[in-house]
Amino acid sequence: MSSYPSYPPNLTAEQLSYLITSFTDYSLSHGLIVRPAPTFIPTNPSNSLATPAPVTLWPSPFPRTHFEEARSLQPFCNLLYARVAADQSWLGDLSTSLSLVDDFISKLWAIHTRLKSENGYHHKYSLGLFRSDYMVHTSDSEFAPLGIRQVEFNTIASSFGALASKVSDLHRYLWRSGAYPPTADYINDLSLPRNEALERLAEGLAKAHEVYIQDVSPDAKYTLETAASVGPNSSYGIMFVIQDGERNAFDQRWLEYHLTQKYGIRVFRVTFEEIRKYTHHVRPNYELLFVPPHAFDGRKQQVYEISVVYYRAGYGPGDYPGQEEWNTRYFLEESRAIKCPTILTQLAGSKKVQQVLAEKKNLEKFMGNERGEEGIVERIFETFAAIYPMDESEAGLKARKLAFEEPHRFVLKPQREGGGNNIYKDKIPEFLRGLEEEKWQGYILMELIRPPEVENLVMRNGEMMQGKVVGELGVYGAVVWKDAEDGEPGDIDIVYNEEAGVLLRTKGSSSEEGGVAAGFGCVDSCVLVD
Ligand code: ADP
Ligand code: MG
């Protein structure tokens, strides 16, 4: 299999039926599931019905060299974005100019400036659970992959790590159990890499938990190694900030189960509204205390000190319907708990930062002095597609022209996360015409990456769809760092910095967006091609 094979192999009716039964039962018995959409199952008593997550029946071919390059770059990408987040003045310049045209960025940035002018920050460490998303780029005429190009870098609520690990296990099981036919001999232990995203993301959270307790209570001599036995008596816990009615709850639950079972760490899933009701700070150090209503037996109330606030919500305006929610975010940001991410780290993940870093001199500013890592700037830079500002700079004026003259080559992106926000190709001119010109600078214009198409089958709600698909490889990173006092880049102390597994998301090749939760794509795994 030296290039993309004719894929997937043809099956007899009996083989296909056996494969689908094996696939579905494995998914259901291993929690590779999501809550069904209300339109799919109108009533869901006690929220007890679930459905297999949308997953490909076969792993999709992915070039091994590019897979390995993306993974080996991840610790450097972690470092890059941790440094950006620590450089308050650099990030401040970008955020203040964006604030003029983007209300969401403005409100995030206002939390930072208010904190600086009032009581200041109280956390010492930050946690990043990042995901750098790539597509393989091909040339116009050739199918041959040219390299990987970064689609975006996520610094908040990077999801699907747990389900991605389970899809990798599922595809390996289908091979090992003989549900894939022996003719598909290029699917084997060597071409199906084990994906440890679940374990590694949980380890990142656990590491931050350990760092927090060691900092606030050095005499306790707390370590993760001894924690498992102490677990149930511990007065510390991790808070997952979640959305009400989350359909992808099991992806989050798996992280919780791993934290509880392997490390003995308690996890609390709370919405913004519950945070308002059940948490408070202790002055002068602003420890965040959580008083769970379920932990009151009529006489005694258990209280937990929150070590880490892990956001699986809060990344878009929809999570902040009113000032109450913004006040809650401020309240959490002000606390001593380690945030994953902080407001500054969230802002570092904006599309604007990605565009600015795609100018080599800016990348060099943060990564130019990487001792012992010759050529790291070039290697990272190689993964960047062309991205232009839409402001009134020279590059911005060029982009404005391109957007009208050659829109089919581009995607226009606002400063938003979570899918469904971008404007593609020929819709760009009309969209821009409908928007006041002052607002254009809130967008970036990015060259479209051309991923290779492969054939695969997707199982969604029990139905099979076959067709041409394209994949997007996400590489997770987990990083814990000590924040710089004065915001100088390079001042941060890295405590933990690891690549943390992968996600392959696959979508129909005619669909522009690829989000799984947004209903455009599905979870896949890689079969590596040499
Ligand atoms: P979001 O924050 O909403 O996830 P993304 O930048 O990841 O925004 O874009 C959403 C989707 O749009 C991606 O998953 C990908 O499928 C597609 N996309 C984004 N940028 C490009 C690009 N430059 N070339 C091709 N497809 C892209
Ligand atoms: Mg994305």
From TrEMBL:
Residues of the Glutathione synthase substrate-binding domain: 238-348
GO MF annotations in UniProt: ATP binding; glutathione binding; glutathione synthase activity; magnesium ion binding
Residues annotated for ATP binding in this entry: 351, 413-422, 424, 446-449, 472, 507, 513
Positions annotated to bind substrate: 252, 505
Keyword match Magnesium: yes
Keywords: ATP-binding, Glutathione biosynthesis, Ligase, Magnesium, Metal-binding, Nucleotide-binding
Annotated pathway: Sulfur metabolism; glutathione biosynthesis; glutathione from L-cysteine and L-glutamate: step 2/2
The enzyme's E.C. designation: 6.3.2.3
Annotated Mg(2+) binding sites: 417
Protein's UniProt keywords contain Metal-binding: yes
EC class: ligase
Subunit structure comment from the entry: Homodimer.
PANTHER family: GLUTATHIONE SYNTHETASE (PTHR11130:SF0)
Protein name per its UniProtKB record: Glutathione synthetase
Organism: Arthrobotrys oligospora (strain ATCC 24927 / CBS 115.81 / DSM 1491)
